[in-house]
Amino acid sequence: MASKIIVSGAIEGAFPAIIERLSKLHSKNSFSLAIILGDFFAAPEKSSDEDDANVSALINGNINIPLPTYFSLGKHPLPSAVVERLEKCDGELCPNLYFLGKRSTTKTSEGLRIVNLGGSLDSSITAGLSKEKYLPFHTEDDAKSLRGANSADILITAQWPSDVRKGSKLFDLATISVPPMMLSTNGNLSSTLERRGSPTPNPSPAS
Q1: Core-most of 105, 115, 168, 206, by most CB within 10 Å?
Q2: Are 72 and 100 in contact (CB under 8 A)?
Q3: What pLDDT, on a 0 to 100 scale, did the predictor assign at position 187?
Q4: 3-state SS assignment for residue 16
Q5: CA distance linking residue 176 with residue 24, whole number of Å
Q6: CA–centroid distance for 101 within its chain
Q7: Claim: this prediction has a pTM higher than 0.85
Q8: φ, ψ at 93 (rounded to 5°)
Q9: CB of 114 within 8 A of CB of 105?
Q10: Is the Cβ–Cβ distance between 171 and 129 less than 8 Å?
Q11: Confidence of residue 160 (pLDDT cuts 50, 70, 90)
């Protein structure tokens, strides 16, 4: 039987409401796992006391995650409390919530192979792998290193491949008010890996 996966775009701190909705959908559909693309937590400059309280509740296990759920890096740094917890718990933030890291290859309990490249390209670093695990940027070598994975059931990137529009008669980037950042390295990675899916976050609507 094929795995049933539910995917969400960036939720930017609204995880209490999203998880409640996810629980209802999961009870009716029995998903194998969930993937949250983009930023799971609120941007630091927009974070409120309520956001901080929600993060504490999540870390302390007071918010129930109904199924295995995976998230990566988006545009913003992770909250310091989250980083501290991840350092102690080897990527499992709380029961059923897993951080994919900046660059990783993960095999789920369902046997799905997820290759992940989080954050945006930092062009100021001309060579080498990024040493900062939780900051939202990566290097070209981070992306190139994942080509060794050879195949993926799901490829996750925070930036769209540069040639994502080519060959499509249905997709018109000009209709999107905020064009997404695009990265040629992601395009190379996307074309190198044999894969069945390649989700990236949708661009945020104009403010």
Answers
A1: 115
A2: yes
A3: 46
A4: helix
A5: 31
A6: 9
A7: no
A8: -70, -40
A9: yes
A10: no
A11: confident
